[in-house]
Write a structure and sequence with these properties.
Blueprint (H helix, E strand, L loop, with lengths): L2 H17 L4 H15 L10 H6 L5 H13 L3 H8 L3 H7 L6 H11 L4 H9 L11 H19 L1 E2 H18 L4 E4 L1 H4 L4 E2 L2 E6 L3 H9 L4 E7 L3 E6 L4 E6 L5 H9 L2 H13 L2 E4 L2 E4 L5 E3 L3 H7 L15 H6 L14 E5 L10 H10 L4 E7 L11 H17 L4 E9 L10 H4 L4 E5 L8 H13 L5 E2 L17 H11 L2 E5 L9 H9 L4 E4 L11 H10 L13 H14 L4
Parallel strand pairs: 4-7, 11-12, 12-13, 13-14, 14-15, 15-16, 16-17
Antiparallel strand pairs: 1-3, 2-4, 5-6, 6-7, 8-9, 9-10
Helix pairs in contact: 1-2, 1-5, 6-7, 8-9, 13-15, 20-21, 22-23
The chain binds 2'-deoxyguanosine-5'-triphosphate, calcium ion and zinc ion (ZN).
Amino acid sequence: MENREIARMFSDIADILEIKEDNVFKIRAYRKAALNLDGLTRDLAELSHKELLEIPGVGADLAAKIEEYLQTGAMALHDKLKEEIPAGVFTLLAVPDLGPKTAKAIYDGLQVTSLEELERAANEHRLIGIRGIQQKTEENILRGIASVKRGRERQPLGHMLPAALDLVAALKSRAPLERIEIAGSIRRRVDCVKDIDIVATSPDPERVMDAFVNLPQVQTITMRGPTRASVAIREGVQVDLRVVEAESFGAALAYLTGSKPHNVRLREMAVKRGMKINEYGIFRDEDNERLGGANEEDVYRLLGLPFVPPELREDRGEIEAALAGALPQLVTLADIRGDLHVHSKWSDGAHSIAALAEAARQRGLRYLAVTDHSQGLAVARGLTAERLREQALEIEAWNREHKDFRVLHGTEMDIQNDGSLDFPDEVLKKLDIVVASIHSGFAHDRERMTARIVAAMRNPWVSIIAHPTGRLIGEREAYQVDMEQVLQVAGETGTALEINCYPLRLDLNDRYARRAKELGVTVAINTDTHASLQFDTLSYGVSVAQRGWLEKSDVLNALELPELLKRLAAKRKRAGNP
Ligand code: DGT
Ligand code: CA
Ligand code: ZN
């Protein structure tokens, strides 16, 4: 997949253009395209020219640049611009919240060219005064440096899972394999992972090793043995492959899937029962007799446990639940009936309402809510109340023609900087659903941020809070917010909270999703689609829900349409609105 590289190049171009004070619209287009390429679940090389143009932010000009890179492996504009800016500036740009102009100013003023030097300068308060930097900014920069250092070691699941699947497919086509599985944190669907762990069986491990280290994705070979090898693919991502005996496959898979704390618990249980579990199998202590290990189920069965889904293996109570026969019936992708956060051409989406509905129906969904941005969000061409009324007519007309699928009319209403909502109740009450979210004022303190969200939830017409913490994995930390209070008020007011499926958001994360369930808060798993390809990201949101122990009944958009409509009406009724 070239998606990541091209996204990075676009983001570089945007940064340099910003330093050069070029056209703001051009800069914005590159940034938007970069973000959307990053979140794409399909390989850019597989997309037609027409499909490229459907990616938000990608017009003819940027599509040509993508094609140029796919054909030649280079992008002339990127290379030319990059020569104009000292490399040290790019190192600094990796720090979240450090804008291009500030990075350039720090570089020019202090000759700082590495993160370590930047950290020292910030600790010695030498940044204060540069382009208006104050102590608070300096603290933010230090936090940013810490997150980059962590980030160097970890990558979003949205990048790593496709990369891992890509490797497995390539290996399957080049070597004789019997079984092959991705293990480690990727199999557990952790949102941010360190490396790729793969386990396989083969009649000819040597040939598998050969094929593996010679894969086109491989950049360096770290280690190569007869049944085990480690390589680095692009961006230094480490990949470990082990070929094991068929009789050990299940035990090796369980061992390598982890998590480590989960495995420790399993081994302790085994010891108590006179057994030993390791990556080769499950053995009886007294005579070392092999009891199982070919299949992962053996491990759990021999411990007297039901199979524990990988998403739960974190030692967060799953062993106790398994022992008590109380593991959750996790929600699955097939349970999802609709999508309640979708953008059309009316604001900043790529597709018409009809096209979105058709794409959603083809994926087996039965309804979707069109929730274009509200007027306050000018950059996303937010809708005024007047435009919203026009949109209602189009949706009504569409629904009259189609009986097997329902388009709900909604809005993604901006929670403004001062905490007020972008539409008055008279506008909101005409809609089927209201999604509210924060798109500005990320720097407010915890109290103010929490108050903004709480106020939105107390409005009887607000159905869902979208991407409640605002994080972008690897790019932007969550804003300061008291999530416990947000979750409590969501429960009190009957407001749903979203798990946003966009792979760099996954917001709520797994822990907040679990807390939501504990508090009886309903969760909506929404794609925030801006182009119909993005419906494919639903699986990422479902994974987060699974890691949060959510069951079908915890998920708003797992409801059939009539029940959904009743549920949406319930909050309004509670507040005395018919
Ligand atoms: P990460 O950090 O995202 O790669 O997370 P994991 O869970 O994939 O961790 P990793 O790659 O270090 O190891 C893969 C699995 O192998 C891990 O989940 C459990 C197992 N494992 C690794 N090292 C140890 C160990 O020292 N003891 C035990 N019991 N298991 C280990
Ligand atoms: Ca791993
Ligand atoms: Zn949205």
